[in-house]
Amino acid sequence: MRRDTIQAPAVEVQRRTPEVLRRIEERCAGLLPRVEAKMKTLSGRDRRPEARLVDQAAQAGTVAKRVMWLRKAADYLQEGAAHLAACRKGCSHCCHISVMVSRAEAQVIARETGAHLNTAAGQFTMQGFEEQSETIRAATLQAYGAACTFLREGSCSIYSSRPLQCRLLLNMDDDDLLCQLIENGDSNVPYLNTTEHHIASVTVLGAHQDYDDLRNWFPKGMPA
Ligand code: SF4
Q: What is the pLDDT of residues 145-169, one digit of tens each?
């Protein structure tokens, strides 16, 4: 989601009509060269500030400080690519898909926002991710189309505390067509590749962490 305050109507999951599928197919046909051209312009960006911020996170003495430095690193990465992304004020598609969050990060969000943390959540671990792939896919599908519990009238109600994943989800296409939700849809969105950053985050916060969708950690969202 873009950094601006978001005001958007709730998104709908579209039917898989031939017309919708045709539009997606046409878009996907020319996608790769367009996105590669954008990525080329990004390849010259100095990544050392981001690496330094991740180092600061690794050296921080508390989980809250580690998360704070990781957020700064994620924001640096996001800011460098945002001008090339499709993400615009008024869009909240990515608040209707799965957002995986570690227990450490969920605890920090709970402390910062006062939202009630469901401590019984945390059904996945980074170790043995392969064996859990079916369960993870099921959880991802369950979240698909369901508004994040922190989404209020189209706005993120915990914007400054939003998860690392929310900071880094950038659609590198030219508009939101591929972000639009389609029933039983597999995603074709050309998201910015942030794998390195996610691996660094897992390493800094501890690979032993359990993970879950944000909706499971915070089923009630923010107190009214
Ligand atoms: S925390 Fe929820 S509402 Fe906020 S940006 Fe992430 S998905 Fe959207």
A: 899 999 998 889 999 999 999 999 9
Position 222 in a domain: no
In a domain, 7, yes or no: no
Q: Please say whether the beta carbons of 91 and 2 come within 8 A.
A: yes
- Kindly report, residue by residue over 6-53, the tens digit of the pLDDT: 334 456 788 889 999 999 999 999 899 999 999 999 888 899 999 999
Domain count of the fold of the chain? 1
- Residues with a CB atom less than 6 Å from ligand 1: 1, 95, 99, 148, 150-151, 156, 158, 162-163, 166
Q: Are 204 and 70 in contact (CB under 8 A)?
A: yes
Mean pLDDT, all residues of the chain: 89
Residue numbers of the domain that contains 114: 18-217
Q: Ligand 1 centroid to 154 CA: how many Å?
A: 10
Which of 27-31, 117-121, 154-158, 186-190 shows the lowest per-residue confidence on average (mean pLDDT)?
A: 186-190
